Automatic annotation (TrEMBL):
First and last residue of the signal peptide: none
UniProt lineage: Eukaryota, Metazoa, Chordata, Craniata, Vertebrata
Protein name in UniProt: BED-type domain-containing protein
Chain residue ranges for the region called Disordered: 1-26, 278-300
Organism in which the protein naturally occurs: Labeo rohita
Alphabetical UniProt keywords: Metal-binding, Zinc, Zinc-finger
């Protein structure tokens, strides 16, 4: 009977009934020891080995699969005169690395050695991707972990990590600038964020990859603002960021919320042309300070008194240059759903009574009892049960607000949404609400309030030729999203005029004509303009609805990219602030603003590091 033993830390002995693999089908885990030990099988995490030196007696022992240390202990105890032989065989293992398959787990003496530079790089990645404070590298537990895994390396100090973060941020920004330099059209979103009594302005950039038309994005800045957030302060900060990345002339639109400071900043310093809805400050219809009436009883009529401070502070609106402005569609929809719907309570006493009684019960249940069965909760709290009319009202309310919630969810997308989605989404939302108006019994005033709010806040956008053109140049929509021929004509006329201008510009680059010809070029039908018009007609008749269809129509493609690069909502900037909040915690409220921005941008712009 075989002598089955375990030595050292080998574990339990094998029982007579335990299964094992056939010896001839198991490769030897340590081929260099084959002349002294042979494999007999395996058990869990150990090899069953038998000693050839003990023959004719069959002596089996267990050895962990990642180490032959038990075999050496057996030699030391039973065959001391063979210890030198065992040592020589072990030393020869490096000379024949391909002699046999190695065990799955690395051996202790074959632990991979890594360089100090590799360790520093991994530590940097750990700090940035995990949004950890830089002081984590000085924590005893972290240092013990690194040194336990790699005893021969050292852990960077907090100051070293900060320096490396600054250098990495500089490299990232240079790479981002190089990438943006190759892009023709760029859009941005911006917003302000306040946390722990400190304020920041965030800016994100978005563009369509020319080859794949895939949406790309990057975080440009999250800079601290000093003092009040006046319109001039915001304009200065945005102008500085745009200039830093050399994109001021490439930005097609900037999307912000509806804060009065942002609105005024773009009204005063924003780009204005015949297609822009925003008017210059002088034509806004609002005057900040009423002009004082001229005093008729002036004794010194020959002397004109001038306020020196007014001249020194006079702003000619040329100090900063901002791109076109777009108000966040999601913010506008939120205002429609919260502020404008209050008109329903004014227009209908029945709706007001039902909404107040229904929502009052829901609020009380959720506040005191949480979610659960409405009937059971009402019974437990001894409050009036929902009447059948109130339940019908709630069902109608959900049915009415569902299209609004769906539209908001669509427009706040980033990867697959373009500016061309805005007008079709709001147009179809209005159509859905108008259709609901026919079937609702209690929520008619709510539908009216929603439609009125949409018209008030989106009416100007729905007739903007540029936004309509953007929708037509999205293959998914083209002209099928509305039956209003007047609306479609606005967009088509915009497209045709810009395609014609593009043809004239291309002809001017390839030919040299007289000043007289240049003057009358607007009324000439050049071959290029005819070709562009043909491309538009072919595009509109093309059945495909994927963005790749545009590649077959180069001039239409170029115009579509320019119009659809902007985003209809500023949700991307809100996501930037969500990540920023994970860094700017109460315990890190005093973090240096530059270090904070560097760590945030490195986290969000990993593809440019």
């Amino acid at each position: 009977m075989a002598d089955k033993t375990g030595e050292g830390d080998s574990g339990d002995f094998l029982g007579d009934g335990e299964s094992s693999e056939d010896q001839q089908h198991i490769p030897h885990p340590w081929p260099y020891l084959r002349e002294m030990f042979e494999i007999a099988g395996s058990k869990k995490d150990s090899w069953r080995m038998y000693c050839k030196l003990c023959l004719p007696k069959r002596h089996e022992l267990l050895a962990f699969k990642n180490s032959p240390s038990n075999l050496k202990k057996h030699v030391e105890r039973k065959h001391r005169n063979q210890l030198e032989r065992y040592t020589n065989l072990t030393s020869k293992r490096l000379a024949a690395p391909d002699e046999g398959p190695a065990s799955k787990q690395p051996k202790l003496w074959e632990t991979k050695r890594v360089s100090q530079a590799s360790v520093d790089k991994v530590i940097m990645n750990f700090v940035i991707q995990g949004l950890h404070p830089l002081s984590v590298v000085e924590q005893q537990g972290f240092q013990a972990l690194v040194l336990h895994l790699q005893p021969d390396v050292s852990v960077m100090s907090r100051g070293s990590v900060k320096n490396r973060v600054e250098k990495a941020a500089l490299v990232m920004k240079n790479n981002l600038k190089a990438a943006l330099g190759k892009i023709e059209f760029i859009a941005t979103t911006t917003d302000c964020w306040t946390s722990h009594r400190r304020s920041f302005i965030g800016v994100t950039a978005h563009w369509l990859e020319p080859q794949t038309l895939q949406r790309q994005c990057a975080a440009l800045a999250c800079k601290q603002l000093k003092g009040p957030h006046t319109f001039s302060v915001l304009a200065s900060a945005l102008n500085e960021i745009h200039t830093e990345f050399n994109i001021r002339e490439k930005i097609t639109r900037t999307t912000t919320d509806n804060g009065s400071n942002f609105v005024k900043a773009f009204r005063v310093y924003g780009h204005v042309d015949e297609n822009n809805n925003l008017a210059p400050a002088a034509e806004s219809g609002k005057v900040d300070n009423d002009e004082e009436e001229e005093d008729e009883e002036t004794e010194n009529a020959d002397v004109e008194f001038v306020e020196a401070g007014a001249i020194l502070d006079e702003d000619d609106c040329l100090e900063y240059q901002l791109p076109k402005h777009h108000r966040c569609a999601c913010h506008l929809l939120n205002l429609v759903s919260t502020v404008d719907v209050s008109e329903a309570n004014i227009s209908s006493t029945v709706y007001k009574r039902l909404s107040c009684s229904s929502f009052a019960k829901i609020i009380r249940i959720s506040r005191e009892q949480g979610e659960g069965a409405i009937a059971a909760v009402c019974s437990t709290l001894k409050i009036p049960m929902f009447s059948p009319v109130e339940l019908a009202f709630l069902a109608e309310y959900v049915k009415t607000m569902s299209p609004v919630a769906k539209a908001l969810d669509l427009l706040q997308g980033e990867s697959s949404v373009q500016m061309g989605w805005l007008v079709p989404t709001i147009t179809l939302l209005k159509a859905k609400l108008q259709h609901l108006h026919i079937s609702v019994k209690f929520c008619g005033p709510l539908v009216d309030a929603l439609l009125s709010g949409l018209e008030k806040r989106f009416g100007q956008m729905l007739t903007d030729p540029e936004l309509i053109a953007a929708a037509i140049l999205v293959p998914k929509f083209k002209t099928c999203w509305t039956s209003n021929k007047c609306i479609l004509k606005l967009g088509l006329d915009y497209i045709k005029s810009h395609l014609k201008e593009q043809a004239v510009e291309n002809q001017g680059e390839t030919s040299h004509s007289s000043e007289e010809d240049d003057f009358f070029s607007a009324i000439k039908q050049t071959p290029g303009s005819q070709e562009n018009a043909k491309q538009l007609e072919t595009y509109l008749g093309c059945p495909g609805d994927a963005m790749g269809v545009l590649k077959s129509f180069p001039t239409v493609f170029n115009l579509s990219v320019r119009l659809n690069t902007p985003l209809p909502a500023s949700a991307a900037c809100e996501r930037l602030f969500s990540t920023a909040g994970l860094i700017f915690t109460p315990k890190r409220a005093r973090v240096d603003s530059r270090n904070f921005e560097n760590q945030l941008l490195l986290k969000l712009n990993g593809g440019f590091c």
